Amino acid sequence: MSDAAIESLDQLKIELPSWGFADTGTRFGKFLQEGAAIDTADKFADAGKVNEVTACCPTVAVHVLWDFSESQTPKTVAEIATENGIRIGSINANLFQDQKYKLGSFGNPDAAIRQRALQHCLDCIQLGQDVDSAYFTLWFADGTNYPGQDSIRERKRRFQEGLRACHAKLSLEQIMLVEYKPFEPAFYHTDVADWGMSYLLCKDAGPQAKTLVDTGHHYMSQNIEQIVAWLLDEDMLGGFHFNDRRYADDDLTLGSIDPYQIFRIFCEIHAYANECGKYPDIAYMVDQSHNLKPKIEAMIQTVTTAQDLWLKAALVDRDALRGFQQAGAIVDAENALKSAFHTNVHPLLSEWRASKGIDADPLRAYRESGYGERIASERAKRRKALGIKSETAYA
Ligand code: PSV
Ligand code: MN
Description:
The protein is α/β, with parallel strands linked by helices. It has one domain (2-386): Alpha-Beta Barrel (TIM Barrel). The chain has 15 helices and twelve strands. The protein has helices at residues 2-8, 40-54, 64-67, 74-83, 111-130, 152-168, 195-205, 224-233, 259-276, 295-314, 318-327, 330-341, 346-355, 362-369, 371-386; strands at 14-17, 25-26, 29-30, 59-63, 87-92, 135-138, 143-144, 175-179, 189-190, 209-214, 237-242, 283-286. Strands 1-4-5-6-8-10-11-12 form an eight-stranded parallel barrel, surrounded by five helices. Helix 2 (40-54) packs parallel to helix 10, helix 2 (40-54) packs across helix 14 (362-369) and helix 6 (152-168) crosses helix 7 (195-205). The protein is globular. The relative contact order is 0.14. The site of alpha-D-psicofuranose has 10 residues, from loops.
């Protein structure tokens, strides 16, 4: 069983977010880091470094407005990724920063603004085709802040129209992921607030549209593994955004608050694979922006935590569990999960890492490489030369 579990780690390719390497913060302020990426090339270099020490992050997600500029063709950006040993993964549309989107993008009452949002998406789809990216990811900040502000049903129909138009332009290789989020920045109603709304919109749009589960986008105590199980069973789970949360969309490192929940989510995926004879096609992506933890270390921590919990979930004795379930042996069934969760999987992880030719401890390898110190000093100098002001304690 442990050989199969180790082998299953090859299924867990984790995409890193380009935006996770740049300076970010909350709406109250930013805490800048000397080593933060200044441009897309820096972000790709950092993602490449994480891939080098973990051997499981071959792609990087891009956010179009933050990673592409008119001075660089998509192909040039793709080449920078290749130079860093990675590829461009999902293309994330940006439908929330433009001043025009105050009342929404696809849900906006103004047809001209909806058209502008649609055009942006069609450009993203084309960009995806230009750089051979399989995933086009949509998250909408759309919603209203006050009762009566707009018609909820009309907004739903506007979304249906926009998403259908996007789907019509996908190539056969492209998958469109629709993310949901219960609140923020809209606080009265969010147009795509939960998995059911995403599911319905995807079904309406076409067969290449799937739901994206961001682990941080749920109300307190929601059973995320049930959502995952249902979406898997309906062939509608397209991808994940990995992070953890305590209160809202906190962007914490994966499993920092509730590792057992991530384990239970992974159990559903292994259960599916066990029944269907193959792992589902899911895009596993990180969505975290750290401004307290060192960014690259936080990414390595997330990735290795994901592998750790994935492996534990792979160790659940499925035959025994099925027997306990049939017999109504609740205590034994639960213990089948718990004993897997409490297994020390480090020896197995080390075995997998040795087979990939990497250090058994990716964080240690990263620290010993001196990369963090090198980029901090090089980027601080470059910031100075570029005239980028940093009002930080380190300045
Ligand atoms: C929104 O909170 C979100 O989860 C979406 O995925 C965005 O693309 C991303 O965060 C921006 O950081
Ligand atoms: Mn997300």
